[in-house]
Specification:
single chain, alpha/beta, Aspartate Aminotransferase, domain 2, Aspartate Aminotransferase, domain 1, 7-stranded mixed beta sheet, 13 helices, 17% strand, globular, binds pyridoxal-5'-phosphate
């Protein structure tokens, strides 16, 4: 039975062509600064984002945490959404690695407006922590793979800057945001001091993320990468996969988005399955959340377990909330099969 793995867009295996790019890459020692493939990737990524410099890192978590470390001091406060990846899924990184606190903003879809920022800014008085960094997430993972409108990013980051805050974009899935909106990566990045992005999600790489920013900040990111244990030697082996993915796997992300809508539409027709209430018009990108009616035969964890026996892997995000993520190893034909499996389990 072929497995349809919808747990995350991180589960992809490198394609043959990507493997070929990896095994034929020119290598050096990136800790000594002379791996030509890493250098090429960093230059390519920085150019794509319209920034001076970039630093290749092993994971999106390290990308975010090194960017935070580079732009804060212990006792500082980060303003972010309360569903942020940096807050929930990075092991308490802001506190553990940078001594920072997070001050949060709530909303159903992961987005907020500039009015939300001003009340959170601390007065410049020794009683308070220093409001230091605004971090946005695009697309927003936990709140539905939602895309920030460019205009709203401009307003929110301008407000943050007016209070002297630095700005970071957790762009783990910036490629999906770009595919959905038609906005170029640099147009988003223009509003931020630092931008992180993953190659190991929708782009299909086995390993790798990066941070882009101005030269001075990236020098600090590089120090943090070493400190956090993320400086790698013949890293060109994996940087080659990222270069390949930037060239070949960005255009196809809209297929994942179409498949996500098809999956959400198919699921919504199943008795007991409800659309994500925060996305009544369907998913914007490749992440599908759905809910189970209170009187449904199974709850989230039970659905996850029974679907796995049918060869369909999803993740229960709560007693009634389930997540399914589309990616390049899920072909269109698999969507109907996945919907059928959910229908069988729910019947
Ligand atoms: C996946 C993800 C990350 C980082 O993930 P790693 O697993 O550490 O590579 C960061 N931010 C968001 C929004 C993510 O979805």
């Amino acid at each position: 039975m072929p497995i349809i793995d919808l747990r995350s867009d991180t589960v992809t295996r490198p394609t043959k062509a990507m493997m070929h790019a990896m095994t034929t890459a020119e290598l050096g020692d990136d800790v000594l600064g002379d791996d030509p493939t890493v250098i090429a990737l960093q230059e390519k990524f920085a150019a794509l984002l319209g920034k001076e410099a970039a630093c290749f890192v092993p994971s999106g978590t390290m990308a975010n945490q090194a960017a935070i470390r580079a732009q804060t001091e212990p006792g500082d406060e980060i303003i972010c959404h309360d569903g942020s990846h940096i807050l929930h899924y990075e092991g308490g990184g802001p506190a553990a690695l940078s001594g920072c606190m997070c001050r949060t903003i709530s909303s159903p879809d992961g987005l907020f407006d500039e009015d939300a920022i001003e009340p959170l800014i601390r007065p410049g008085d020794a009683h308070f922590s220093r409001s230091r960094l605004l971090s946005l997430e695009n697309t927003h993972n936990r709140n539905g793979g939602t895309v920030w409108p460019l205009e709203q990013i401009a307003r929110v980051t301008a407000k943050a800057r007016s209070f002297g805050l630095r700005t970071h974009l957790d762009g783990a899935r910036i490629w999906n945001a770009c595919a959905a909106s038609g906005v170029k990566p640099a147009e988003y990045a223009k509003h931020f001091d630092t931008v992180s992005a993953c190659f190991s999600k929708g782009l299909g790489c086995p390993i790798g993320s990066a941070v882009a920013g101005d030269r001075e900040t990236i020098r600090k990111v590089l120090r943090a990468r070493k400190l956090f244990g993320g400086a790698m030697r013949q890293a060109g082996l994996i940087a080659a996969a990222a270069i390949y993915a930037l060239d070949h796997h960005r255009d196809r992300l809209s297929e994942d988005h179409a498949n996500a809508r098809m999956l959400a539409d198919g699921l919504a027709k199943i008795p007991g399955v409800l659309r994500d209430p925060s996305q009544p018009n369907g998913p914007q990108t490749n992440i599908v959340f759905f809910e189970l009616a209170p009187d449904a035969r199974v709850n989230g964890p039970q659905l996850q377990e029974r679907l796995a026996k049918e060869g369909v892997l999803v993740l229960a995000g709560g007693p009634r909330r389930v997540r399914a993520v589309l990616h390049l190893d899920v072909p269109r034909e698999a969507i109907a099969a996945a919907v059928d499996a959910v229908r069988r389990v729910m019947a």
